[in-house]
Amino acid sequence: MSDLSGTRYDERLPRYTSYPTAPQFSNAVAATSYEHWLASVPASAKTSLYFHVPFCRSMCSYCGCHTTITQKNEPIDDYVDVMRREIELVARKITAPLGVHHIHFGGGTPTIVAPEVLRSLTASLRRLFDIATDAELAVEIDPRTLTPEMTEALGQSGFTRASLGVQSFDPRVQKAINRVQSVECTAAAVDGLRANGIRGINFDLIYGLPLQTVESCIATVNDCLAMRPDRLSVFGYAHIPDFKKHQRKIDEAALPGGAERREQAEAIARTLVAAGYLRIGFDHFARADDAMARAQAESRLRRNFQGYTTDVCEALIGFGASAIGRLPQGYVQNEVVIGRYAERVKQGELATVKGYRLTEDDALRAELIERVMCDLAVDIEEVCTRRGASTVSLAPVMARLQTLADDGVIRFNGSRIEIADDARLLVRSVAAAFDAYLMRSNRTYSRAV
After folding, report:
1. Cis peptide before 241 (omega within 30 of 0)
2. What kind of architecture, by CATH, is found in domain 1-14+360-449?
3. Helix (H, G, I), strand (E, B) or coil at 334
4. 50 forms bridges with which residues in the sheet?
5. What does the alpha-carbon distance between residue 382 and residue 362 come to, in Å, rounded to a whole number?
6. Mean pLDDT, consecutive 10-residue segments, the chain of 449 residues?
7. Domain 22-319 grouped into CATH 3.90.420.10
8. Domain ranges of the chain
9. First to last CA, the chain
10. Which residue in 221, 222, 263, 418 could disulfide with 271, CB within 3.0 to 4.6 Å?
């Protein structure tokens, strides 16, 4: 049995929503590379689209996203106009019609755009891309700013899934993180979405917040269960005030320690499992009849920048400031600063300013990491053989894995490794064993648990 109470695995590690991770991106891959990659995407490739809307009405102190606070609509409207230009620019660079199966609007708060703007934008997407009739259209929502008009526009535009930020319903915690949101406000948003045909409802929760306790975590989960969400994401708060300066408003003395964080995470998990939800990976939960639960059971679960997903698309095209895309050749990221992003697009240029070109070794390690993150197990020799790769290059990996095995975190079954049932929360520590770049990075990551 593994010991989660020790300090050996109280680490700061990537979330492994990509590999290599973003700190490895550089300007060696930029707009010219992206243009060539877009032109080479085959017509048969299933494609996902991601749209980043980096605006909110207020700043939540815990936030780790690229976003800007505004009370005015004009900057948002101007931004969407630029993003529309970028969409048309990218569409012209693609030589073959692509079948789009997933669309995700993230932020920020995408639903603070005007309802008529959203309807117009989604209509443009259907004109420019071959969107499958069963495509999933997902959007991230702050229930505090969701209006009935926007809820109706989401239904009219064909959205099928909504992810609602909850974080915590504890009033003390909400005040400490500058996000006061009632249960009633959240329930009204859920009811409105379902009434307009958006059946897939996701909730985002966070543990490790200031003043948070095991009891308040369980109370929040019980309030959520009354609204019958299909999926829940349960993230550990990433306190990185050197990188996100607004987090300095959080009293570090009020933050739970490592042992408390683990207790909160496990208490949430126990409560959800007891209510009939299945654990997906290490931080997601889904109803047994949900597509994500079926994907996990069939080893079809994937991981991308939104976390665990059923999206099996070969290409992900990102739009908007700071948006990241992934094509078979590698990763690309747009200019982060909104003004510079807009300037490039207005000049008729792709907004890509950095990225990463995958090597064969990267692709091998990426698959090993993804399977560990999704299946909590992987057959190393099987993956290497299928890819025509030698296991010799993984010798340092095997030494690290042996340490994990000695500590009871994983067990070996031939060339297959399996994470122990009580060590699920340490999956990022196991994935890190395959990361060839981790020790070279100066990036400060979030705590692994």
Report:
1. no
2. Orthogonal Bundle (1.10)
3. strand
4. 104, 318
5. 17
6. 55 89 94 96 90 92 84 95 97 88 95 96 94 96 97 98 97 94 98 97 96 97 98 90 77 90 95 97 95 95 92 94 96 97 97 97 96 96 94 91 94 95 91 90 59
7. no
8. 1-14+360-449, 22-319
9. 18
10. 221
